Amino acid sequence: MDTRRAANRRHLTKAAAALALAGVPAGRTRAARGVTAKQPARAPWSPADGLRLAGPVQEPATLDPALARDLSTNFLLRQIFRSLVRFDAGLHPVPDLAESITVSQDGLSYRVALRAEARFHDGRTVEADDVHLSFSRALRPATAGSAASLPGVTYLGDIQGAGDVLRGEADMLSGVRVLDGRTLAITLTRPSSTFLMKLGGVPASVVDRHQSTTVQAWTAPNGSGPFRFDSWTPGESMRLVAAATWWEGTPGVPSLDIRTGPSASQPLNLYQAGEIDLVEEVPPDQVSLVADPASGIEVGALIQTDLFAVSYIAFGNDEPPLDDPHVRHAIKLAFPAANVARAMFNGAVLEASGLIPAGMLGTNWALPVPSVDLEAAREEIARSRYGSVERVPPISVYGADVAPLEALRDTVGESLGLQIDVISVNWPDFLSGLAARRFPAYALYWGVDYPDPENLLWTLFGSDSPENYTRYRNVAFDSAMAEARKTIDRERRAEIYADAQRILIEDVAVIPLFFDRQSTLTRPGLEGLDVTPMGILGLETIGRPA
After folding, report:
1. Would strands 255-259 and 51-54 be described as parallel, antiparallel, or unpaired?
2. For residue 417, how many other CB atoms are within 10 A of its CB?
3. What is the C-alpha to C-alpha distance for residues 39 and 28, in angstroms, rounded to an integer?
4. pLDDT tens sequence across 287-340
5. Is the dihedral angle over the CA atoms 69, 74, 76, 79 positive or is it negative?
6. Distance between CA atoms of 190 and 511, rounded to whole angstroms?
7. What is the pTM (predicted TM-score) of this model?
8. Which of 70, 228, 329, 420 lies at a 20 to 30 A Cα distance from 408?
9. Distance in angstroms (rounded) separating the CA atoms of residues 476 and 340
């Protein structure tokens, strides 16, 4: 899912990126900060200790999975709730609350049998009616105040009757039929090669149909996942405990103590002080320090993972002056986008020439890296309907993390003369603005919610996608996405996605900045943590016997 994900958890691009692009030596911005002196050795971690970690500094407003719109909240919700499927360590969709899922030959019908052992935290059995209610509720405008604010549209919108629920014309999905207490049938409006993956998304979580739907109730939910909500002190911490009702058996970790709000800041310092047991993401400029034995930092494991996550700048094509393709091309030709990865992170992240990270579908998606060509950029402006830089109206770009946009403004403004206005928006308002499609151009970090290029391509730029935030339209791109949706063969789908990515890059719907590389630090003795290209999905694997 996007934003939600998207940028909240990892604001990797810092203000220094703008300085690096402007020519200030990157070394001046990369000094390690906040690292304390060597601490006394501590006993190795054991499951009985429970797990302490730093959660989101920007706290979730609710623990309602139908409203989750960022990666940090999704991480918490995956511990409390689960859906019919989940992703294993290899990111393959496997049954979770479902015992089995049978797909019809035409790809339109799914028969789901629930596990007899699947239970909510209060002990009640998860039933087919709970699934029907959960999926329908995730598409009701009343759940979020408007259909535009519902992330579930991306994941459940292929189910028959979704449009009726989204328009408020029906309360329940007609495409979900309860056959008996543990069995249901799901019918799609069109085949979808990624539907099973989408069922692993947080908005498809199964919630208790008897739970109150008030905002207050969702601060202490009756979940369906491996950890049960225990307490939450806003601005300080949240405590989850192992759920004895979990269908796989009680997790090996008895409790999760998760710092939230200001108390979650500076996780590496918290780790060194012995106050947390893992750092999900070591800041890129401190990875080498942590790995250096001379630093004195106790390291159980430093797990480096190339993530399915990309930082990018997006441009719409339906508002002046960005509706003129020559203006978009001029910006691309004048902006040294590769410098964001090279100068700021010095190898800690990966340069991005396209939108799809390497490894998705087992493919390398790299495209030729564009070079700055100011003469060609001026020629593009001359070909535009404006004819000269002076006649091009100011271009507004928005972001919660504006460092890459400031770099764009400074470099393109100085070298080409285009006026780019950078508008900083706080995170909640930025999410709302994206959902309302108020931004003709924006910068965002997007971590995928299912491991298929569709979650980057169609989700962000498909004309019929609810998360196409710039209202970008391209007939050839839409045609490619429609073909990929019904294509089961993996190699053929990869070919289609490669063509679709090329269309976006050549049309300058997007300027990719970098792919993320995450370094996860664990305390000595802590084992069983699965870090995937989608990050850490679940914590129930920690502390289990080998």
Report:
1. parallel
2. 14
3. 27
4. 888 989 888 899 999 999 999 999 999 999 999 999 999 999 999 999 999 888
5. positive
6. 31
7. 0.88
8. 70
9. 30
Q: Provide φ and ψ at 252, rounded to 5°.
A: -70, -25
DSSP secondary structure of 59-81: --S---GGG--SHHHHHHHHHH-
DSSP 41: P
Q: How many CB atoms lie within 10 A of CB 455?
A: 26
Neighbours of 189 (CB within 10 A): 14
pLDDT at 144: 80
Q: Which residues neighbour 440 within 8 Å (Cβ) at sequence distance 6 or greater?
A: 315, 316, 318, 319, 322, 396, 470
**DSSP assignments along 111-178, one per residue:** EEEE-TT-B-TTSPBP-HHHHHHHHHHTT-HHHHSSGGG-THHHHHTTBTTHHHHHTTS-SS-TTEEE
Examine the pLDDT at 13 and tell me if it is beyond 60: no
Give the count of beta carbons closer than 10 Å to the beta carbon of residue 231.
11
Tell me the C-alpha distance between 519 and 395, whole Å: 36
Residue 95 has which token pair? 């049954």
The kind and range of the H/E element at 102 are: strand 98-103
The HSE-up count of residue 35 (CA atoms within 13 Å, CB side) is 17
Closest CA to 289 of 39, 34, 26: 34
* Contact in structure between 47 and 254 (CB atoms under 8 Å): yes
Nearest CA to 68 out of 176, 164, 143, 172 is that of 143
Name the residue with tokens 């902006």. 335
- Residues paired with residue 449 on neighbouring β-strands, in sequence order: none
Q: What crossing angle do the helices spanning 403-416 and 325-334 adopt, rounded to 10°?
A: 100
Q: To the nearest 10°, the Cα dihedral for 453, 459, 463, 465?
A: 140
Q: How far is CA 174 from CA 187, 198, 201, 506, in A?
A: 8, 19, 21, 41
CB 469, CB 437: distance < 8 Å:
yes
